[in-house]
Design goal:
By secondary structure, the chain is an all-beta fold. It is 0% helix and 50% strand. It has strands at residues 3-7, 11-12, 18-25, 34-39, 45-51, 58-60, 68-73, 78-83, 92-98, 104-105, 109-113. Strands 2, 4, 5, 6, 9, 10 and 11 form a 7-stranded mixed β-sheet that branches. A 4-stranded antiparallel β-sheet has the order 1-3-8-7, with no helix packed on it.
Length: 115
């Protein structure tokens, strides 16, 4: 059974940085494209970023491009999201999702950007 566990969420001030991790198990991580998706309070799901198998192709939503960096460590079965220059509008629960069609999801980790 595929399992994804996100970690690293925290309260951070505007302009700050944070790194999220997603530990994967129960499937062949190295052969699976991965994504980050977020949900702000009271809003719908928003796709944030994708990374292909191998990690050489990455994609970002316009709202985070240039500030966020997605990466993966296939040896550790872990997906990462490095977030810089955080804004209050980045406040959300961040989920990692596995598969081209987001077949499996974690439970999320809360990022709050506030003074």
């Amino acid at each position: 059974e595929a399992q994804l566990v996100e970690s690293g969420g925290a309260l951070v001030q505007p302009g700050g940085s944070l790194s999220l991790s997603c530990s994967a198990s129960g499937f062949t991580f190295s052969r699976t494209p991965m994504s980050w998706v977020r949900q702000a309070p009271g809003k719908g799901l928003e796709w944030v970023s994708d990374i292909n198998t191998g990690g050489d192709d990455t994609y970002y939503a316009d709202s985070v491009r240039g500030r966020f960096t997605i990466s993966r460590d296939d040896a550790k079965g872990t997906l990462y999201l490095r977030m810089n220059s955080l804004r209050p509008e980045d406040t959300a629960v961040y989920y990692c999702a596995a598969g081209e069609y987001f077949e499996n999801w974690g439970r999320g980790t809360l990022v709050t950007v506030s003074q």
